[in-house]
Amino acid sequence: MANPRDKSSLDRLAGLSYLNPAAPEPWASFVEQIERVRPHLGELERWIETLKHPKRALIVDVPIERDDGTVAHYEGYRVQHSLSRGPGKGGVRFHPDVTLNEVMALAGWMTIKNAAVGLPFGGAKGGIRVDPASVSKGELQRITRRYTSEIGIVIGPDKDIPAPDVGTNAMTMAVMMDTFSMNRGGTATGVVTGKPIALGGSLGRQEATGRGVYITAREAGRHLQLPIEGARVVVQGFGNVGGIGARLFHEAGARVIAIADHTATLVNEAGIDIPAALEHTAAHGGLAGFAGAAPIDIEDFWRLQCEFLVPAALEGQLTVDRAAGVRARVVVEGANGPTTPAADDVLRERGILVVPDVLANAGGVTVSYFEWVQDFSSFFWTEDEINDRLERIMVGAFGAIWKIAEEKRVSLRTAAFIIACHRVLEARAERGLYP
Ligand code: GLU
User: Rounded distance, CA 412 to CA 138, Å?
Assistant: First the structure.
């Protein structure tokens, strides 16, 4: 049977409402997470359906001329899940498996994340169904430029501000900023965040997501009497989130015993030399061939005994089966949506604490917020100022979410969703419906 993922999401959408919660995909997980907040909303429950209906979803065709003269078409998206609390904000993902359903869920999680840490943004996300490794540099630049032009009608510094995500980086943002600015006839640095420093980027932005993962793990450890020093850490994903997170754990004296990326899954119980692994990845494009650790089966990887398990790759990785075998004290979600709702329940029953994505990986968008503020004021902060403010926001959000979780006897995820949904729906209710 053909793999349904082989079909373009446009094909799969034919005859199907894109809101169909029966689809076993990330959007269904997001909707289920929202439902869990219903009993805690009081009068605001009246507005809960808002969160199950993305405000706006744009599908664009991205045609380019390939280097060999042929024409290729890629499918692109920009979803604005909510604009109730401010402009849309969220990354752009370039990946061969990107679907509208996935981008909708990722946009929804941005709404919750931004509200949970108190940033004055709604939630949005974008993506292109493309494997960046399968096209040349020039082709990728043409794809990025055409995509930016196509979504140019919905983005802007005061409308919706993209940023990097899986498969994109500061260079992608430079191209997006330039394209938007050329179309507009004037430089608009604040249209994207995660830019190179020379174009109005912020110090500390590149490290920010990994730093936030580390800070929230440390805070969770503090509550559980589980110091980072000497702790065993397992990290799935070795890119901008997992790689930097692993480095910060390593620098703080933790023992990172296993790491994985799309090329290799590796273990070394004595502790992996993370700076060496990062150097290897920078030189070879992945962990494959790194001699400082031994290959391990991916299912055994999930069962490794450790204090902190950090899924920092893609969504849907921690399934019920895997959750049943996890031998970590704390799961810190560096990725967006790595744990399915059913797996979440298994982890909770087994007494494993989950620091949810909407808190654990919020460091990236928090420094994106600082970047956007700096671009608007054309006044730039030092790296220490950025890191101090990031630390304050992350520790403050962690404490507030922990308190609600204790008071209401719910998971940290549900507590984060309770705080966020209250903020979003209060804004929704106060604005009222138009017309
Ligand atoms: N892509 C990141 C995330 O999922 C960052 C988004 C942003 O900075 O806007 O949170």
Answer: 44
